[in-house]
Structure formats: structure tokens, C-alpha cells
């Protein structure tokens, strides 16, 4: 039975009932049909335990982090614990590209999965529109006389689109007579846009407007900064986002509440659902389960050092998802053979898992449990080896089968996490001091979290650092954009590489989002489609969709 067939057989509760379970008044939601709603009351009083689900460096198909998060929440619900999920929204690019949907799978899904994976409540479209409205304001200002004296060669704000489209990585705009000043431009995918980050980090509509106005869009001919507020664009952008800022309420197949809001990528952005979504979940539930994108070196690092810092949050426990196939890949096994039993490659691949465990326990000082997300192709011998090896190192570990068994497959993990939240000691720390120099913050992330020997900065990136320092914005958190497939910036360096160098080629100030992006290696902010996009497998027959998710 496919994921769509499973989800279509479960109608779920009316969304008003889901809100009532949490304690949200019906007058505080705006219904989008019978199974989706916007939460319009943005007042928060966070009090619940906060649990982060993260993972080791994944294979290209992912390791089921969202599926485990959903199944874990359902298991909490089954154990009569008041729980709420806080998840990211899927981006259309990957949905039609390589990975398909991002709503879980099997018997651990959020519904309505087709809606969530596609247009949902229109948040991504609103973000794209607000982003490109600002871009059009910039070019129109130059065309209409350029009273701000914007230097067309020093525009730092880019257009975006919520699709994978490598053809848009480098384009020319305003081509042709009477169309403005021709210049080079590039598109980022919407999930990597500053507007997406701003939406996810804003605490209110007023805070959203403030941040939008603070976006650095360009430099003038005298190298002075030009902001979105100088173009008087922030009010119009805020109006476009007035509904998008409201978190979305849905449910799992089991009826567990899920607040799904915002979708920045963790390899090229900060990779976490919105602060508002997390804090609203923490206001109404006793346990909040959230996840951060890709491996713990990306999503978890950014969750701890950026989201928690900005939001003032302290996690209570961390679930680290690992799979037999990913561990064998990190041991050097051919990606086409990962379903074959092989203890030798599995043993070698454990080094990647232990590096992530060390980061969580020793850098961030947080309790962690490893969740083995079991697939049908995994042998008992392989799973038992992982368990025994971790237990020998006094690491908590639980096997999960939430894809196949839903809530029941996550009960053992849920009991372990509840015990950790109630009893485990944590003295949460960040991996760097935000007031350190930009290059020192990057070096600390690279050495502490990745295990890098050295960081090399391009000449361009050093100039960009000096420009940020001149603006007195060096005391912001740092986001490193790099590959998700390796602890290094080279996707081919699997396992736990040593003696490697991180190469920083670009530094960008996201002044509205209030963080700095360092682009490492060959990381691109606009993905491309694979040779055979997932969208090619989409089938509509007799009014039913199949093949995409």
C-alpha cells in the first residue's frame, strides 16, 4: 500500500477538534477547509519539554527523520502524553526533484499529505511574491531615476523561485531597450531566501516588518548600504506575508496535532521550522517534538546555535536518527548495494554516528538517544551490532519501526525520551560566542562540529567580512552552507574524515534575518533537477494522484 493510499483511508479529525485537544480556542484559528487551519493568535507562553530529532549525514534518499518525528509524537500520544509536533513545510523543488514529499511515510504521516506537499496554505507562494516584489522595487527605483544612487553592480538581494531550476543560477535582467539597466542576476530557491529565514525567525507581525525593512539590498556608488526600508518596500512585503506568518495546524494519521510552518533548507539556510510554530506548540503541549534538516552537523548545529539563541529556547533531549544503509554508505559501501548485508562496512561507518553523538553530548552538553530507523532490508545481525556497540559505549539506543507500525513502532523510543526529559542532566551550551569575530565563529563550527583541521577563506570572502564589520553587524550568528552528505564540504569525504580543510568562498549578510551566511565548497543556493525528476513519475488516473509522494 502506497503512502497516498494509506493517507486517503484516514480522514482524520475535524481540525477544530485537533485545536480543542491542544487547548486552542476555535476563535483563534482560521480554517482552510475541514483539515487545515491557520493559528491566528500568536501570543505564546512556552512551558513544555522541547525534543529535537536530528540525524547522521544522510544518503541521497534521507534517513526518515520526519517519519521518526511523527511516529515518536504518535507514540507519546498513545502513552497519553499531551504532545505537539513542530515541523517544516515541504518545498516544491525537492517534491518534483529528487526526494519527493516531506510529510513522513507509511503509517507515520501528517495529513492531508497531498496538500501539504504541494501548495498547502500558500505560505511559500507568499514568500516568493514578497521576495520578488522587493527585487522589482530595486530595478524600478534604478529605472525611475535612482535617487538612492544604487550601484547596479553591487545589488546583493536576489530573486527566488520555489522550484529546482539550474538555468536560473545566473541570468541577465532588464534586457532590451526601455526595460531598465541590464545587469547580472541570480535566483535562489525560495527555501534559501532571506524572506523565508525572516518569516521563520520573526516573533510577531511588527517584528516581521522590522526585519523586512532591515534587509540589505545593495550598496550605492559611494559604497554606503541601501536597505529595503530605503525603498519603502517593507509595508507592502509585510502585507503579502500577513497570513503566511500564522502557523499551520494539521494532524498525523493518529490524530496527533502538528504545527507545520516555514521550510528553510538546512544545507543552504538555517533548516528549522518557525520560532512561532515551536513556541505555540510549547505553549499548549507538555512535550514538543521538532526536527531540523539533514544531518546534525547542519540542522542540529543551526537549531542550537541560531534558532535557540534567537528564540531563547533550551532543548531537553535530542533524538539522533541513524539507519543501517547510511552507516554502510559511510563505511564505504557502494550506494547501489546498501540493502545487502555487510557488517564490515557497517562497522567502519559507525565513526560518522559517533562524531554526531560527541557533538551533542560534549559540545552542546545535551542528553541524546540514537534511534535506529529500521528498514525491511536490515538484518537482525546488523541492527544488533549497532545496539551492542552503542550500549558498550554507554549510549542510549532504541530501534524504531514507525514507518511500518506507526505509533506502536515508536513506543520504546518515546519511553526513553520521556525518561530523559524527566531525569537527564543537561547544561546546554552554544558552540561559539556570538560576539567573536566572524572568521573565528566559522573556525569554531568547522573544528568543533565538522572536525576540520583548517578553514581557508577566499579573497572575496575576506573583503565581504570587512564590509560586514564596517556595518557593525559582525556580532550575529553564522550559518554555514555546505553539503549535507559529509562532515566536510566535499560530499565524497564520507564517514568521519580527518585532516580536511573547509573552503569558504562567499560570505553574505542576511541583515533582516540577523545572521551571516558563509558558503563552503561548491554549495549552490539554487538546486537543479536530477536526470529523472520525481515529477516525471506523477500520474493522475480516474481523478487520483499517484507516484509523486
Molecular shape:
globular
Task: Round the Cα radius of gyration to an integer and report it.
Answer: 23 Å
Helix share of residues? 25-40%
Number of strands: 25
| Helix/strand structural class | alpha/beta
Task: Enumerate the spans where pLDDT stays under 50 for 5 or more consecutive residues.
Answer: none
The chain-level mean pLDDT equals 94
Strand content: 15-25%
The number of distinct helices, counting runs of at least 4 residues, comes to: 18
> How would a crystallographer describe the biggest sheet?
12 strands, mixed
State the separation between the terminal residues, measured CA to CA.
Answer: 12 Å
What does this molecule look like?
The radius of gyration is 23 Å and the shape is globular. The protein is an alpha/beta fold and 549 residues long. The two termini are 12 Å apart. The protein is 35% helix and 20% strand. The strands form six sheets. Strands 1, 2, 3, 4, 5, 6, 14, 15, 16, 17, 18 and 19 form a twelve-stranded mixed sheet that branches. The mean pLDDT is 94.
Q: Could you list some keywords that capture this structure?
A:
globular; 4-stranded mixed sheet; single chain; 12-stranded mixed sheet; alpha/beta; 549 residues
Q: Short summary of the structure?
A:
Helices cover 35% and strands 20% of the residues. With 549 residues, the chain is α/β, with parallel strands linked by helices. The model has no long low-confidence stretch (mean pLDDT 94).
Blueprint of the fold:
Blueprint: H1 3-8, H2 15-22, E1 29-31, E2 37-39, E3 49-55, H3 65-78, E4 83-87, H4 92-96, E5 104-105, E6 108-111, H5 113-117, H6 123-143, E7 150-155, E8 159-161, E9 171-173, E10 183-185, E11 187-189, H7 194-201, H8 205-213, E12 216-220, E13 225-227, H9 234-240, E14 248-252, E15 257-260, H10 275-284, E16 287-291, H11 296-311, E17 317-322, H12 324-330, H13 343-363, E18 368-373, H14 380-392, E19 396-400, H15 402-405, H16 411-423, H17 438-450, E20 454-457, H18 459-470, E21 478-481, E22 501-510, E23 515-520, E24 539-541, E25 544-546
Parallel strand pairs: 3-16, 3-17, 4-15, 4-16, 8-11, 17-18, 18-19, 20-22, 21-23
Antiparallel strand pairs: 1-2, 2-14, 5-6, 6-14, 7-12, 9-10, 12-13, 14-15, 22-23, 24-25
Helix pairs in contact: 3-16, 6-7, 6-9, 8-9, 12-13, 13-14
Amino acid at each position: 500500500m502506497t503512502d497516498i493510499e494509506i493517507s486517503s483511508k484516514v480522514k482524520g479529525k475535524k481540525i477544530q477538534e485537533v485545536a480543542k485537544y491542544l487547548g486552542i480556542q476555535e476563535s483563534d484559528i482560521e480554517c482552510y477547509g475541514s483539515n487545515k487551519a491557520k493559528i491566528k493568535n500568536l501570543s505564546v507562553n512556552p512551558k513544555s519539554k522541547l525534543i529535537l530529532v536530528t540525524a547522521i549525514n544522510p544518503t541521497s534518499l534521507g534517513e526518515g527523520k520526519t517519519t521518526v518525528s511523527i511516529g515518536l509524537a504518535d507514540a507519546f500520544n498513545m502513552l497519553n502524553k499531551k504532545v505537539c509536533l513542530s515541523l517544516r513545510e515541504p518545498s516544491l523543488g525537492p517534491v518534483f526533484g529528487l526526494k519527493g514529499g516531506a510529510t513522513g511515510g507509511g503509517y507515520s504521516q501528517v495529513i492531508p499529505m497531498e496538500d501539504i506537499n504541494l501548495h498547502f496554505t500558500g505560505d511559500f507562494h507568499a514568500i516568493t511574491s514578497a521576495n520578488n516584489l522587493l527585487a522589482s522595487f530595486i530595478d524600478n527605483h534604478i529605472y525611475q531615476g535612482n535617487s538612492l544612487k544604487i550601484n547596479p553592480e553591487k545589488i546583493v538581494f536576489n530573486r527566488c523561485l520555489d522550484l529546482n531550476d539550474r538555468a536560473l543560477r545566473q541570468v541577465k535582467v532588464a534586457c532590451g531597450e526601455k526595460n531598465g539597466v541590464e545587469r547580472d542576476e541570480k535566483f535562489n530557491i525560495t527555501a534559501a531566501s532571506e524572506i523565508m529565514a525572516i518569516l521563520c525567525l520573526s516573533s510577531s507581525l511588527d517584528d516581521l516588518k522590522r526585519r523586512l525593512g532591515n534587509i540589505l539590498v545593495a550598496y550605492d556608488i559611494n559604497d554606503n548600504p541601501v536597505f529595503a526600508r530605503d525603498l519603502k518596500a517593507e509595508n507592502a512585503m509585510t502585507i503579502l506575508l500577513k497570513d503566511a506568518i500564522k502557523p499551520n495546524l494539521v494532524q498525523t494519521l493518529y490524530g496527533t496535532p502538528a504545527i507545520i510552518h516555514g521550510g528553510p533548507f538546512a544545507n543552504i539556510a538555517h533548516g528549522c521550522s518557525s520560532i512561532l510554530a515551536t513556541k505555540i506548540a510549547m505553549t499548549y503541549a507538555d512535550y514538543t517534538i521538532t526536527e531540523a534538516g539533514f544531518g546534525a552537523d547542519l540542522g542540529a548545529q543551526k537549531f542550537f546555535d541560531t534558532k535557540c539563541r534567537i528564540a531563547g529556547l533550551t532543548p531537553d533531549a535530542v533524538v539522533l536518527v541513524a539507519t543501517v544503509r547510511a552507516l554502510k554508505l559511510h563505511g564505504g559501501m557502494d550506494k547501489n548495494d546498501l540493502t545487502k548485508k555487510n557488517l564490515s562496512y557497517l562497522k567502519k561507518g559507525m565513526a560518522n554516528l559517533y562524531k554526531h553523538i560527541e557533538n551533542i553530548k560534549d559540545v552542546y552538553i545535551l542528553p541524546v538517544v540514537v534511534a535506529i530507523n529500521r528498514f525491511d532490508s536490515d538484518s537482525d545481525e546488523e541492527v544488533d551490532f549497532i545496539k551492542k556497540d552503542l550500549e558498550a559505549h554507554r549510549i542510549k539506543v532504541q530501534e524504531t519501526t514507525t514507518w511500518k507500525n506507526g505509533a506502536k513502532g515508536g513506543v520504546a523510543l518515546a519511553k526513553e525520551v520521556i525518561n530523559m526529559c524527566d531525569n537527564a542532566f543537561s547544561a546546554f551550551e552554544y558552540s561559539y560566542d556570538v560576539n567573536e569575530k566572524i572568521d573565528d565563529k566559522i573556525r569554531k563550527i568547522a573544528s568543533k562540529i565538522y572536525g576540520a583541521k583548517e578553514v581557508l577563506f577566499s579573497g572575496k570572502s575576506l573583503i565581504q567580512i570587512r564590509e560586514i564589520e564596517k556595518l557593525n553587524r559582525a556580532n550575529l550568528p553564522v550559518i554555514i552552507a555546505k553539503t549535507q552528505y559529509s562532515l566536510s564540504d566535499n560530499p565524497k569525504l564520507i564517514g568521519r574524515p580527518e585532516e580536511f580543510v573547509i573552503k569558504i568562498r562567499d560570505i553574505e549578510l542576511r541583515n533582516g534575518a540577523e545572521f551571516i551566511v558563509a558558503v563552503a565548497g561548491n554549495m549552490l543556493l539554487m538546486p537543479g533537477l536530477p536526470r529523472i525528476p520525481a515529477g516525471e513519475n506523477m500520474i493522475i488516473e480516474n481523478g487520483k494522484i499517484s507516484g509523486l509522494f
